[in-house]
Amino acid sequence: MAREKIISNYIKKLLKQDNLQDTKIKILNIGCGPGRSSEYLSQFGEVVSIEYDKFCCEFASEKTGLEIINGSITELPFDDNVFDLVCAFDVIEHVEDDQLAVSEMKRVAKNNGLLFITVPAFMSLWSHHDVINHHFRRYRLAEVKNLFSFKKDGKMIFSSYFNTLLFLPIFLFRQLSNLLQSGEKRTGSGSDFEAFKPGILNSILYRIMYFESNFINRHIRLPFGVSIMYTWKKNNQNE
User: Fold this and answer.
1) How crowded is residue 103: how many other Cβ atoms within 10 Å of its Cβ?
2) pLDDT tens-place string over residues 67-91
3) Would the pLDDT of 211 be above 60?
4) 177: which of 110, 128, 169, 222 lies 20 to 30 Å off by Cα?
């Protein structure tokens, strides 16, 4: 999956910058869902996984064999200053009090620990996908930065939109879908491509998304996109 590759490649770069590439770091993966993100994060160190949905937690544990803790990002069941890397991939948008969620992530990170989040971008892309997945909001980069700069307790490492090349077709598809589905209850997962069969389309989408990894790994910020990635380091005072 292209998203997984983009995140994995960027974490490799992030750890290399901090001279942690040869260290078995302690990682917290918040909102691990079915567990795949915990599996690929394990290449970087010891992963502790937490999932809010109890059914999903049990399913992921059974599927992956990993120990997954049932808990909330707004009340993390860990002491202060425990983890080298705290991740929350597409989680913050599910939380009404997103400021508290970020504060909890900061609390459990070690001094000089890293935080890495992804969130969906732009309310103009709001659609059935967001409703069915119980999102409270979509973000702009400035709004994410404000969440992290609430206290002067660290600094941003890198921020960017991504899934940029697919932004225009997804925007047009969602606008048209919202217009056509107005007043109707839509069923299904909410995916923009649920009507298409897998195969060649998946291969094309993979190549388009993975191409963006070349920019992100060079810290080249993309000006817009369907999603946002944001990395932050604790205890550097110049936010």
Assistant:
1) 16
2) 899 999 999 999 999 999 999 999 9
3) yes
4) 222
Amino acid at 212: E
Q: What is the distance, to the nearest Å, from the Cα of residue 187 to the centroid of all Cα atoms in its chain?
A: 25
Among 229, 235, 207, 238, CA closest to 90: 229
3-state DSSP percent of the chain in helix, strand and coil, to 5 = 40, 25, 35
Helix 200-211 with 2-17: angle, nearest 10 deg: 20
CB 196 within 8 A of CB 190: no
Tell me if 192 sits within 8 A of 170, measured CB to CB. yes
> For the segment 174-200, what is each residue's pLDDT rounded down to a tens digit?
888 888 876 555 555 555 555 445 566
Measure the CA–CA gap between 118 and 124, rounded to whole angstroms: 18
Please give the CATH number for the structural domain made up of 2-234: 3.40.50.150
pTM of the model: 0.89
204, two tokens:
């094309």
